[in-house]
Amino acid sequence: MNNQENLFNECFSKSGGRFNYEETHYNGDFVSAKHIMNSMIGFVRNKYSNLPEIHLDFIDNPSLNAAAALYKGSYYIGINAGTFFLIADLFMKVMSCKSVFPEIGDILLEIDEEKKISASLTFSGLFYNSDIGTAFSEPRDKLRLEHCYYYQSITLEYLVLHELGHIIRGHVGYIDSIRKGAQWSELEYESESNNNLPPSISQTFEMDADSFATNWAFLKLNRIINSKDLKKYRQPDYFGQDWLFASEHWSFAIYLFFRLFNFNQLDFEESKKKSHPPSSIRMIMILNNITELFRKTYKVELRDEVAKKCFDASLKGEKAFLEVTFQKSKINTLTDAFNEPGREYISSILKNWDDAKPLLKPHAFGELPPY
């Protein structure tokens, strides 16, 4: 390992250290994923010229998680190897199902056998486990396979943007100022929390990182939609059709990713004690945000038209998720988040921004937004 890889290994040693993907059969896949995420960091860097170098790599850990950290004066983003495998396995098996977007490609090429993702759910989170589920498979239809890669790219870009948001908005700098070597982890296990921050502040930081990621993901989508050279973005021609296509498939991919975090039944009093908002609440906030961005940019008079497109994509995502897992439908958890208690919970998170913002200003790499 080179010097930066050694430092990365030290930084995330408690989580498993650096994953030596070069020694696996998936070397090319990891290199491609790393390129996608580093390209997105470069895309954002165009606005934040004062942003220091950020070192991104994979952690040797099979669980669904990611983290951002400040270690020995440098910033690091670590993506668990299990997260990469789970994302790839999820979309490959989803798009191998004939019932998922049957209008895409030739579904008659796909085989009828059951397809389940290779994952085990424990009290410590979701883990990639190749001994569970059905054998790794990919769509036989070329167009459906291209969609797999498209969804993987959307998800990896969103994930790195979220971690980048923790750095740029000052979350990582702030927690490092109160406890050296602290890391911002995406999942709270029973044995740990996000650096003992008050839950109200921690959840607001998470909301901020989701907002940052959604806004920048939209900027990338918008550029692709309006580009006359889609090959520049490594996208097939039809991916740049229009905002309707983009909003549907982006929402579908992000919903499936968040569904991996499990949509537990909403208990708002209990949720207030956690470091992260409930996944279903986060998904509602993301859908509201992306809906507004599309509506304002493309001057859609009826907001409901955009909202319906994004929400319908989530419904498709839920059905697709059920095809490749043994879980029961949790769509009611998402719809419950739309109700008055859910809206009040979201409002309380937004109101906490007034308390969180002053903490972040000394550590942020740009102007902090109003909410």
Explain what this protein looks like in three dimensions.
The protein is α+β, with helices and mostly antiparallel strands and 371 residues long. The protein has one domain (3-363). Helix content is 51%, strand content 8%. It contains 13 helices and 6 strands. The strands form 2 sheets. Strands 1-3-2-6 form a 4-stranded mixed sheet, with helices on both faces. Strands 4-5 form a two-stranded antiparallel sheet. A hairpin with a 2-residue loop joins strand 2 and strand 3 (74-80). Helix 6 (199-225) runs parallel beside helix 9. The longest helix has 27 residues, at 142-168. It is globular, with a radius of gyration of 20 Å. 43% of the residues are buried. The mean pLDDT is 88.
Low-confidence segments:
none
Tally of distinct domains: 1
- The assigned structural class equals alpha+beta
Distinct helical segment count: 13
- The residue fraction in helices comes out at 40-55%
Strand numbers in spatial order across the main sheet: 1-3-2-6
Shape: globular
Give the biggest beta sheet: 4 strands, mixed
Beta strand count: 6
Question: Roughly what is the average pLDDT, rounded to an integer?
Answer: 88
Q: Helix and strand succession?
A: HHEEEHEEHHEHHHHHHHH
Terminal-residue CA separation: 43 Å
Q: What is the multimeric organization of the chains shown? A: single chain
Beta fraction: 5-15%
Radius of gyration: 20 Å
